[in-house]
Fold DUF4446 domain-containing protein.
Amino acid sequence: MLQIPTIDTSLMIYILLALLLTLAIWIFILEKRIRKIMGGKDAKSLEETILQIHKEVDDLHTFRKDSIEYLKNIEARLKRSVQAVETIRFNPFKGTGDGGNQSFSTAFLNEKGDGALISSLYVRDHVSVYSKPVKKFASEFETTEEEKNAIRNAQESLAYESKVKK
């Protein structure tokens, strides 16, 4: 016949008490974690908090999308804006003393080389101002050497700025 070992009753009670104490400590730790997560709130207010955070995340996604679109529009406008201004001062009447170096040619160009060229010729008794359109770093009208230099300098400053940006 098979003999079943007997366990002392007091030993069994100590084992069960130790197990009960371990479970009680584990439950206490879990409850403490839950209270920390809940922050003293009930489940309803926790759900409201989660929904509010979700709404704020959606709002941030919308704001990000709008900001990207806005920046694209600004970038497009900047490409059409004047980005290079270069001035060349000169004396159109070399050797005669008239005018000094008060005459000038100024190029106002965007990054595509489109814009305007404004020149001023100064003589003792009057000033003449001329304007010429510029397309792709050239004017359809005849330009003086000083005007060509102003356009060339503006083009070089645009090339330098694009290298610096990279």
